[in-house]
Structures are given as C-alpha cells and as structure tokens.
C-alpha cells in the first residue's frame, strides 16, 4: 500500500511539474519573446543620385553646343559612345550663387541655389559644367582638364569662349601636316568637321563635312591657336577646316 501511495505521489508531482513548468518559462526572464520587433533605422544623409547618360535637362543642349564651339567639331550625345568618353549629371544644392566655383570668376553671394552639375569626359578630356535650375543662362564651365578651356559663363546660346586662344602662326608640333595641295582628303571616322569662313575658331561656320566626307585641298596650311587649317572645297563650297587638335587628327589624306 505504501509503495502504491509513493508511486501515486510521484506521478502527481510529475504531472504538476509538467503543467506548471511551461507556464513559468513563458513568463520567466530567461524566455525570449518570439514576436518580431522591427529595429528602428536612423535615416542617413540624403545622397544625390548620379544619373549616367539618363535623359538630361534641356540645358544639356547648351553644353553640347559649347563643347562643339570649344573643340571645333559637332558634339552630340553619340560623341560619347566610345571608351574614352562618358557623361553624367546630378541634382545639386549649391551654397552660393557662384555654384561653389570661384574659378569661373562670378561674383558669388552666400545663399542656397538649386541646380545641376554635369560631369563629362570627351576623348579623355574632363569638363565640369554647373547651372541653376531656375535660369538656363546661368550655365558656367567650372573646370576642365583642357588647359585651353577657360572656366567662365557659357549662356543658353552656347556662345562661350572656344578656349582656343588666337595665336596666329603657331602650329601644333605634335601633329605634322599630312595633307597636300591639289590632292584629296577626308574627315576621319567619328564626328563631322566644321567648315569656316577663315582659318581660326572665331570665324563663322559656313558648313560641315561629315565623317568620311571627301574634299579637295586648295591652299594651306595656316596655323592659329595650335591648330593647322586648310582651305578646302567640299560639295561646291569653299572654306577652311581644322586638321586636328591635341593628339587627334580630324583629317587624313587619301592615297
């Protein structure tokens, strides 16, 4: 009888422990609450998105026009489709009216200005353009790795400085002349060459010779702004066109 009572008591204690222990665990400090609690995240500083080659504001047309004027060639979006060129733009909030660019020579007042910044690399030459979103004519070239590209205002018409300082008689030493008077030549693959009324970048543009366009060399060369100019005839039109700039030939002789 005693053994039965002892066994019954043991079973009773075990049953009570079985029922009570989970309840204790559910409320005890050692039990982890399985409910998911989101961890608050402190917002970081807003990062301005960089938009590589995406649809740009209309002022980008003014930048292309300015680059065309500076390089003496027609620059389009397609001009950046090569391994040595790229472009991107991003929204900016400048700290002053000079777009944080003292090199451009603008008188600046400290105030926030919402604007854009365009960073371009054309044939391994870098250009940094800045502008206010409220005023397209405020466009400036802030800096460039081209030593002839003088920083300063550009304006909506793209009529900024060519960056090529007039130096009559100064020929490029690294690009020997290859054309011959009376012979034919053609524009190298890529961009069109501009035909001007005289042999310098300040002369008016009277036409274009497309890539691959064949012309006849009439006279030359004359040199200005470290550029060699030839008088040529193309499609019945006579004018002057540049043989090249920097380390790049824009024209080549036809054997």
Plain-language structure description:
There is one protein chain. The protein has 255 residues and is of the alpha+beta class. Helices cover 15% and strands 36% of the residues. A hairpin with a 2-residue loop joins strand 4 (125-132) and strand 5. The chain is elongated and about 105 Å long.
Q: What descriptors fit this protein?
A:
single chain; 255 residues; alpha+beta; SH3 type barrels; 6-stranded antiparallel β-sheet; 5-stranded antiparallel β-sheet; 2 helices; 15 strands; elongated
Fold blueprint:
Elements: H1 2-27, E1 50-52, H2 60-71, E2 86-96, E3 110-122, E4 125-132, E5 135-144, E6 152-153, E7 184-187, E8 193-196, E9 205-209, E10 214-224, E11 227-234, E12 237-242, E13 244-245, E14 248-249, E15 251-253
Antiparallel strand pairs: 1-2, 2-3, 3-4, 4-5, 5-6, 7-10, 7-15, 8-9, 10-11, 11-12, 13-14
Question: Could you give a short description of this structure?
Answer:
Among the domains are: 50-153, no CATH class; 184-253, SH3 type barrels, CATH 2.30.30.40. It has helices at 2-27, 60-71; strands spanning 50-52, 86-96, 110-122, 125-132, 135-144, 152-153, 184-187, 193-196, 205-209, 214-224, 227-234, 237-242, 244-245, 248-249, 251-253.
């Amino acid at each position: 009888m005693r053994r039965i009572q002892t066994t019954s008591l043991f079973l009773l204690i075990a049953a009570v422990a079985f029922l009570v222990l989970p309840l204790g665990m559910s409320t005890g400090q050692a039990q982890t609450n399985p409910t998911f609690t989101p961890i608050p995240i402190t917002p970081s500083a807003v990062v301005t998105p960089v938009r590589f080659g995406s649809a740009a504001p209309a002022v980008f047309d003014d930048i292309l026009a300015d680059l065309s004027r500076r390089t003496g060639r027609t620059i389009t979006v397609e001009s950046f489709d090569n391994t040595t060129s790229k472009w991107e733009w991003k929204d900016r909030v400048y700290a002053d009216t000079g777009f944080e660019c003292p090199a451009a020579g603008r008188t600046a007042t400290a105030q926030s200005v919402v604007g854009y910044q365009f960073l371009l690399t054309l044939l391994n030459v870098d250009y940094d353009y800045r502008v206010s979103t409220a005023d397209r004519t405020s466009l400036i070239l802030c800096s460039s790795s081209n030593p002839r590209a003088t920083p300063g205002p550009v304006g909506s018409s793209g009529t900024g400085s060519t960056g090529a300082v007039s130096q009559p008689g100064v020929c490029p030493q690294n690009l020997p002349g290859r054309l011959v008077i009376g012979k034919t030549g053609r524009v190298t693959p890529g961009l069109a060459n501009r035909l001007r009324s005289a042999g310098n970048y300040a002369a008016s543009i009277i036409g274009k010779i497309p890539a691959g366009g064949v012309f006849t060399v009439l006279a030359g060369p004359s040199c200005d702004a470290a550029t060699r100019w030839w008088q040529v005839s193309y499609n019945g039109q006579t004018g002057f066109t540049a043989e090249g700039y920097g380390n790049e030939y824009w024209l080549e002789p036809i054997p």
